[in-house]
Write a structure and sequence with these properties.
Elements lengths: L6 H11 L5 E4 L4 H11 L5 H12 L8 E6 L1 H4 L9 H7 L3 E5 L4 E3 L7 E3 L5 H10 L4 E8 L8 H20 L3 E8 L7 H21 L8 E2 L16 H15 L6 E4 L6 H14 L7 E6 L1 H11 L6 H19 L10
Parallel strand pairs: 1-2, 1-10, 2-3, 3-6, 6-7, 7-8, 8-9, 9-10
Antiparallel strand pairs: 4-5
Helix pairs in contact: 7-8, 8-9, 9-10, 10-11, 10-12, 11-12
């Protein structure tokens, strides 16, 4: 007899993650990405410095007021504080549910220049079982879609959503909530309309595939990009334009049965990510069938990292900054964020 997933457990997990206007912190940078950010700040790229940085994050007082969950990386979920307390225990004690990034990264897709395919399905069932033992109750898999002159191809889109669907099926089988992340990258000089069209195509292809894989839509979280012009474009859209295009795109392509959309920040400035999320919730609250929240990484962490710079003396100030950025994201989730709060 096939194992039946525990729907109630998955529903409860989603409910707890996003209770009381909360969202998620993505602190699941791979070691390579973390090292790259450290190098930019002149921080030594060592396992101990990564541990210190993550300890700074998980021991920040008050994060639990804004965050219901934190996505960890394989190295991080195995790490402990200076006093030998596992990070997962610190988070759970604070009422923040630990999650885990389970893909092994986006690799160049053979035969498709400038496109990537995310790997990590081999052995995933066994890895999920181990992570579950360690306390993880939700997981994340990120697909990367690039807008360019000849990209994305339908083949790259289909290959990536196929992997996302297989991942989601394994998560639900293991009673772990899948965060499904098809990220259409901001890099490039594309227009907002191009971003809209590609995002809509990716999401429609994704949900058709999830449906074919018997994914229970009510027990998953979607982590999409916002609809935004490319970073190299000279055009800048207003906050309200981004909110409107994003909402229209999602209404056209995401089933109402999905309980939560938790946006990625995708390299937006923290203020922009907050302002856009706020406008979506404020301007369209009566039209949104889903909870619309956040799963930000840099938009919450970056200012704290800039301040910390690997120095013990800066930990307390960096933690205050981290906590305030999380609060601003949570305010945006309820449509109560204002630029004045940035002071």
């Amino acid at each position: 007899m096939e194992q039946q997933m525990n729907k109630q457990l998955l529903k409860d997990t989603i409910g707890q993650l996003f209770a009381n206007g909360k969202g998620l912190l993505a602190m699941d940078e791979s070691n390579a990405t973390c090292n790259k950010r450290f190098a930019a700040e002149g921080i030594p790229q060592t396992i101990e410095m990564r541990r210190k940085y993550r300890e700074l994050i998980v021991t920040t007082t008050g994060l639990n007021e804004s965050l219901g969950g934190a996505i960890l990386y394989d190295e991080t979920i195995r790490q402990q504080t200076n006093d030998g307390i596992p990070f997962t225990d610190v988070l759970m004690k604070a009422g923040i549910i630990p999650g885990i990034k389970v893909d092994t990264g986006a690799k160049p897709m053979a035969g498709f220049p400038n496109e990537k395919i995310t790997e990590g399905l081999d052995g995933l069932r066994e890895r999920l079982a181990e992570y579950k033992q360690m306390g993880a109750r939700f997981a994340k898999w990120r697909a990367v879609i690039t807008i360019g002159t000849h990209t994305p191809t339908i083949t790259a889109i289909k290959a990536n959503v196929h992997a996302l669907s297989r991942y989601a099926a394994l998560c639900q089988e293991a009673d772990i909530v899948p965060i499904v992340e098809p990220e259409v990258l901001m890099t490039g000089n594309h227009t907002m309309q191009q971003c809209y069209d590609v995002t809509e195509q990716v999401l429609k292809t994704l949900f058709y595939q999830l449906y074919q894989f018997n994914i229970d839509m009510e027990e998953m979280i979607l982590k999409p990009n916002m609809v935004i012009v490319g970073t190299e474009s000279t055009i800048k859209n207003s906050v309200d334009e981004v909110a409107e295009a994003t909402v229209n795109c999602l209404l056209a392509s995401v089933p109402a049965s999905v309980p939560v959309i938790a946006f990625l920040s995708g390299g937006q400035a923290p203020e922009d990510a907050a302002a856009h999320l706020n406008a979506i919730n404020k301007n369209f609250k009566d039209r949104l069938p889903w909870i619309v929240s956040f799963s930000f990484a840099r938009a919450i962490q970056q200012p704290a990292l800039d301040l910390w710079k690997g120095q013990q003396a800066n930990v307390e100030e960096a933690q205050k900054l981290l906590c305030s950025r999380a609060k601003l994201a949570a305010a945006a989730r309820t449509g109560n964020y204002t630029v004045a709060m940035e002071k």
